[in-house]
Design brief:
three-stranded antiparallel sheet, single chain, mainly alpha, 3 strands, flat
Length: about 120
């Protein structure tokens, strides 16, 4: 008859799992780095992680404000192609980011409205 996992077994499982996760075996600051080379290194390490898809899905759901999650870079709660260097962003970048945010919000609002309409019918 199988016995339930005890505290010691659970701690051992957590330790073994942590050994498989790059964000647990490398410097955690790497996933929140400022330099592009370090950000790219974190993204590459994420690609080897067995939990990459769940990590990305969770980060999108939580709208992580920044960092590398699931192999993608988040800035202001949205996935971006690459992290911009320090300094003032160009006007084109600011306008593009705002337009992208508005499209995402409209898509969310439209999805909510269509779900509401289909349940009311």
């Amino acid at each position: 008859m199988a016995t339930p996992l005890g505290e010691q077994d659970s701690a051992e499982f957590d330790r073994l799992l942590a050994g498989l996760l790059p964000c647990r075996t490398n410097d955690p600051e790497l996933w929140f780095a400022e330099r592009s080379a370090e950000v790219e290194e974190a993204k590459a390490l994420c690609r080897t992680c067995p939990l990459v898809e769940g990590c990305l899905a969770g980060a999108i759901e939580r709208r992580e404000p920044w960092g590398v999650w699931g192999g993608e870079v988040f800035v202001d709660g949205v996935v971006v192609a690459r992290k911009r260097g320090r300094g003032r962003p160009s006007k084109a970048e600011v306008l593009a980011r705002e337009a992208e945010r508005q499209v995402q919000e409209a898509a969310r609002a439209g999805a909510g409205a269509s779900v509401g309409a289909s349940t009311a019918a």
